[in-house]
Write the C-alpha cells for this entry.
Amino acid sequence: MLTLTNLHVSYDGSRILRDVSLTLARGEVVCLMGRNGVGKTTTLKAITGLVGVDSGDITLDDVQLSGLKTDARARAGLGYVPQGRDIFPNLTVWENLRIGAIAQKRKLNGEVDRVLELFPVLKEMLQRKGGVLSGGQQQQLAIARALLTAPKVLLLDEPTEGIQPNIIDQIGETIKTLRSDGFQAEPTAREIGDAIQKLRREGQIGILLVEQYLDFCLAVGDRFYIMDRGAIVASGPIAELGEKLVKEHLTV
Ligand SMILES: Nc1ncnc2c1ncn2[C@@H]1O[C@H](COP(=O)(O)OP(=O)(O)OP(=O)(O)O)[C@@H](O)[C@H]1O
Ligand SMILES: [Mg+2]
C-alpha cells in the first residue's frame, strides 16, 4: 500500500538518507528501528512531505505522493503522529480529538466512540485539559486524533518514548522471555501496544512504527527494517530479529 523506492534526502547539502526503500501493506505493522540520529524521523518526514527528497518515489496505493504538499498527502490517507507529545495542552481531550476532523471539515459520526474503544483511558478524561494528562496518555490522545482523520497509513514516531525506561539493556534475555511469556510492558506502553494490536487485527490500515523499544516491536510488529547511518541495513519478518542484529545495530 505504501511504497518508498530509493529515497535520498539531504539537509544543507549533507546526505541524511541513502537509497531507502520500504513497503507497508494494509493490515501490517512494520517497525523502523535504529539508534539515535540514524534517520528514522527523517524517513517519516520525507513520507509526509515535511522534508523534500533529492530523488526517489513515494506512493500510497496508486497515488504518487512525491509531488504533493503535506496537506494533500494527509488527504490521500496519511496519518502522522510526530515524535514528542503533539497535543494542545489548553484544549480538553474532547476538543483535541475533534480538531483534526474540524480542520478537514468532516463529520465524526460515531467515529470518536470507535476510537475511544481503542483507548479506554481517554474516555474517562474527555473534559480534562490535554496538558494534565500523563505522557503516555498524551501519546494515546495524539494517536487517537490521528485515527480520526481516517488514515490508510498511520506513521507513529516513537510512541513509547519517555514512557519506557531505556530499552535494550538485557537483550538476550529479553528476546527469550518475550517469545515465551509475551509482552511484559510498563502499563501505559501496554495500552498503546494493545491499541496497535487491535488495529492490526481489524486489518484496515497499515502502521509504520518508528521505535527503539525492542520488546514493543517484537510484541506488535509483523516485519522490521533497521536503519544505520541513513541506510536500511537489515529487514525481515519480526521473528528473524535476532540477537546478532540487535547487538550490531540497536544496542547503545
Ligand atoms: N532540520 C535538520 N537540519 C539538519 N540536520 C538535521 C535536521 N533534522 C535532523 N538532522 C540530522 O539528520 C540525522 C537524522 O536525524 P533523525 O531525526 O532522522 O534521526 P532519528 O533516527 O529519528 O533519531 P532519534 O532516534 O534520536 O529520534 C541526524 O544526524 C540529525 O542530526
Ligand atoms: Mg527521531
User: Anything to note?
Assistant: DSSP finds ten helices and ten strands in the chain. Residues 166-173 have pLDDT under 50 and may be disordered. The domain at 2-249 is CATH 3.40.50.300 (Rossmann fold).
